[in-house]
Design brief:
single chain, 336 residues, mainly alpha, TerB-like, 2 domains, 16 helices
Length: 336
Amino acid sequence: MFLSKLKDLTRFNSKEKIIDISSIQDSLCTGLYSVMDKSFAARKGDQTNSAFSLEDKDQIIEGYAKKNMILAAASSIIPGPLGILGAVPELLMNFGNQMYMIYDLGCAYDKEDFINKDILLDIPFAAFGGNTDLSSLQANGSDLMDSPKELLIEKAKGLGGSIIEKTLKKSIVQFIPVGGPILMGIWAKKTTGKIANISNNFLDQGAVYVEHFKREETDEIRRQLQIQKIKALANLIECNNEINEDQIAFIGPIIENADVSQNEKNHLLEESLKIGSNFPLDYKLLKDYEEDDDLITELVIMARRSGHVDPLEQKYIYQVANDLNIQKSFVDDLLV
């Protein structure tokens, strides 16, 4: 009876959310190359940014972050990560601002002539987990020439593919309706912050950019990562010692659409709705496969579904972030 009622509340018809991934990826990849090309030309033609110095670094980042938050607030995308992917124009405007930021940070580090089109694509690509040429580019030490157009287009395709992978295929909250501006805002904060951090590390003459190659994931590893995320989200729901039908409808579709056996789904559904389950988490697995900041992002998305985050939810999110060695400032930015 319990599981029957639960499944009635969490029933999800995948046909209701058909999305043409290939079409979106084509539009996104074409648009990313165009935005990069226009951003590079626009910033190179602007003489005012040549006056930037390291003292302007934080102001540059904050300025573009604010622009993307205004863009997020004005977005009218449908709820959920699927909505983000369907909002290609807003995505491209977001990345345009981030590429402006990369260029202007190059000016602040007195490396304007070092910035090229490859860098405007490679830094966002690295932020989404892609392998890039940033290490060799930083070691070059002299002004850089752009790669041929064909290679730049391939890089734009790689970036577009990584966005699709991280935003849709690996997101476990894609079945939960979250207000478009809230979701876009959280997504914009996270990506702008990561791109800014990579930019600073790459452009700083005193730093050595170390290319990081992510571990290859097997199907079993992906399933285990899904389970860890579901357990963390279940802990978040239980942290205020209350379970209600809204919360059942909240986590149910995530579990029902997880790539795990039906027995495992039934177990997770039952345990998720018991006060005090308090699932232990495999933090090492989450860190090894770089799902740590994605987990925090998804916890914030779920917590903000109602429009606010209560103190107990905040406490749990900060606790998980601390156990994952994630800076408090990262969580602060997402929760604001």
